[in-house]
Amino acid sequence: MLEIKDLHKRFGDTVALDGVSLAAAAGEVVGFVGANGAGKTTTMRIAMGVLAADSGQIVYNGAPLGVEQRRRFGYMPSERGLYPKMKTAEQIAYFGELHGMTRAQARASAAALLEQLNLSDRAGDFVQDLSLGNQQRVQLAVSLVHDPEVLVLDEPFSGLDPIAVDVMGTALRDRAAAGAPVIFSSHQLDLIERLCDSVVIIGNGRIIASGTVEELKAKEVKQLRVSVDTDEDLTGRLPGTVTRDGDDYLVEDTDDQEVLRIAAAAGRVTHFAYDQPTIAEIFREAVTR
Ligand SMILES: Nc1ncnc2c1ncn2[C@@H]1O[C@H](COP(=O)(O)OP(=O)(O)OP(=O)(O)O)[C@@H](O)[C@H]1O
């Protein structure tokens, strides 16, 4: 379990983080979302020891995180850090060696990752000759090469085409399935919804909402959507606040069983369920609250 506890950070007069806490358990994929400048990169940099907090703690498996343990983490920084004039496979293996692998281990791991990320045919190319999306795949390979215990990734999906998104998403889920806590930031909320177990929403350096995807959705559920096969207009007959959305009835503040009884008496009920908001809607609601 990786725990980020009560981080505070100022840059001059700017309060970047004002008591940020979040955690990722073994095998959990946590999506970290927030508007531009909300504090995601600063939080991740502090978690990885690249930046010092003014106060707060990073705790790993119950104890303060040390330098040696951090070497076993995989990190994709926002400022991507590849050597453009190095060949792809050599580069990935080089980072493996920096993390303490033998040359043979690092090369074998690099080759396996290139295969997994559909980049085997570019193994001998210079990084600078790859497209930006492929450079990003290499960047992911660099963060995975040493089989990290934890993954902290700053916008790993930005600039990727849909195929690359799937490849990257599978790689992250595989890592989590192997027991690693995974935290990544993204502005692509559909991806967050698809890939994450939990979501943490940050706004102006504070956590404004967090929980599992199901919890967040359940908290925001408000309206019942009902479709009935009938020519009759049930607006005035259903209890609660009733509005129409096309042929559907949207009902709030109601007794759902009573709604069902009336609807079923009027005709065949073809849909009867509470609308669940998307993570994008929950995000918009949270940041404008
Ligand atoms: N090195 C720095 N010097 C001064 N201010 C900084 C520095 N790094 C970050 N900030 C400020 O701290 C705040 C948080 O920035 P941060 O980069 O963490 O946001 P973010 O959520 O990652 O944003 P984005 O989605 O745009 O990447 C912003 O107001 C930013 O301008």
Automatic annotation (TrEMBL):
Example of a GO biological process term: response to antibiotic
Pfam families: ABC_tran (PF00005), DrrA1-3_C (PF13732)
GO MF terms held by the record: ATP binding; ATP hydrolysis activity
Residue ranges constituting the ABC transporter domain according to the UniProt record: 2-229
GO cellular component: plasma membrane
Main location as per UniProt: membrane
Sorted UniProt keywords: Antibiotic resistance, ATP-binding, Nucleotide-binding, Transport
Subcellular location: Cell membrane
Superkingdom in the source lineage: Bacteria
SUPFAM superfamilies: P-loop containing nucleoside triphosphate hydrolases
Lipid bilayer topology: Peripheral membrane protein
Keyword Transport on entry: yes
Record flagged with keyword Nucleotide-binding: yes
Similarity comment: family membership: Belongs to the ABC transporter superfamily.
Protein name (record): ABC transporter ATP-binding protein
Lineage, top ranks: Bacteria, Bacillati, Actinomycetota, Actinomycetes, Glycomycetales
